[in-house]
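Write out the 3D structure for:
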Amino acid sequence: MSRVFVFPGQGSQSVGMMAGLAASDPVVQQTFDEASQVLGYDLWKLVIDGPAESLNETTRTQPSMLAAGVATWRCWRNAGGAMPDAVCGHSLGEFSALTAAGVLEFAEAMRLVQQRSQLMQDAVPIGVGAIAAVLGLEDDAIAAACAEAANGEVVEPVNFNAPGQVVIAGHASAVNRALEACKARGAKRAVLLPMSVPAHSSLMQPAAERFAALLQDAKLAEPTMAFWSPVDGKAHGDAADIRRLLQRQLASPVRWADLVRHLTAAGFTQLVECGPGKVLTSLNRRIDKRPDVQCLALQDVESLQAVLAQTAAENN
């Protein structure tokens, strides 16, 4: 069975996440301590104590989710979990995946993510941009609603997460108009998300250009396993190619549904989410409903032990 580990990004965070795993393996606290040394503040205290408003700020969410993904990965490996055949990540989760694949050292990944999140926030100040989820509407209808609502501003589909689940982003006023246009077209739900920047919209292009300069100085190695990206649904094995991809990623849509289809078409039959929550696991099950495709989640001690037991049974 070919296994791919998938790492979540913004939207999976919650106050108190990782507390259970931290009680079972000191590597969780160690990982957050390493992150805090790079960031210059106590990341673990923020994750455990909140408040949620602070955790949901992009400049705090991104380092938190990177540390959470890497800490969960380290717990898996410490518990004897086998190396997967490939890794990928949703947006910010790509940095966790690249750390697991040996492309980035954790401290380097944290430094890049801290800078990336600040560039994103600087590109569109809090209150100017918005991001929202639209459920139960076809992709083409959502694109049409965005075009209708723009009125000279930016609002675009930015995350194609699963059939009937798309995220839109852009200027706050345009996003709100687009939500109403989506509802008029029959969307089941159209709601704003607790994120402070319109990630992956064309408003992020200035941030992408500035991030490119930082990436030139970053230390990237060749991946030790296959690394797939939702930017284009392909595998990337060259460090220089990955460097370009991380710049492009900032202002490009996340095509998660396409990525999962490409992975399963390539023979990956076990998708294991590595990090807090089950957001990606839920999406993956909606994208590929075939019974031979397993969608699992590592988010706490119980799920970690369950996946370890399952993989052990498969190997016997």
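The CA atoms of residues 228 and 234 lie 5 Å apart.
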